[in-house]
Amino acid sequence: MTRFTRAELEAARDRLLPDVVADGLHVLFCGINPGLLSAATGHHFARPGNRFWPVLHLSGFTPRLLKPSEQDELPSYGLGITNVVARASARADELTAEEYREGGRLLVAKVARLRPRWLAVVGVTAYRTAFDERKARVGPQERTFGGTRVWVLPNPSGLNAHWTARTMAEEFARLRVAAEARPSQA
């Protein structure tokens, strides 16, 4: 992986990172917002300590461990990536509640356009804030967006010490099983 200077990373602040999407995905994963390294590289979940890519593989969503630079392979597995808030920041705590709410509104429109079977928000706090669901917990939600069901997953950031890669993979795998079921079985 290319090493970036502090100045190069700072130059990526507020940069937008394109979604990895297609129509009719099984699961559209939704991060909180891109970090500076993701914005600098153009790859989602690019920070080496982020466990998204290993957990995606451990849970059975991908047949092998993908690198962030291989993100464009995701639609071939019926998967995609977007974010609640589009702009890059060093930390999620730099985002305002209004940015989360506006991001939630834009996400609903995106889901209506793309029609994934499941929207998987990685980060319960982001989900709670974006959709004013204060009591939401990790797992499937009652809320739907049209025909799209919603699942909240643990945040794969290395800072989330409450979840190990193994316990995260178990939760991701629960979603994978639901996503693979025929819609009438889910």
UniProtKB/TrEMBL annotation:
CDD domains: UDG-F2_TDG_MUG (cd10028). Pfam families: UDG. The keyword Iron does not apply. Gene3D superfamilies: Uracil-DNA glycosylase-like domain. GO terms for molecular function: DNA binding; pyrimidine-specific mismatch base pair DNA N-glycosylase activity; uracil DNA N-glycosylase activity. It is an enzyme of class 3 (hydrolase). Keywords: Activator, Chromatin regulator, DNA damage, DNA repair, Glycosidase, Hydrolase, Isopeptide bond, Transcription, Transcription regulation, Ubl conjugation. One of its GO terms (biological process) is epigenetic regulation of gene expression. This is G/U mismatch-specific DNA glycosylase. The gene is mug.
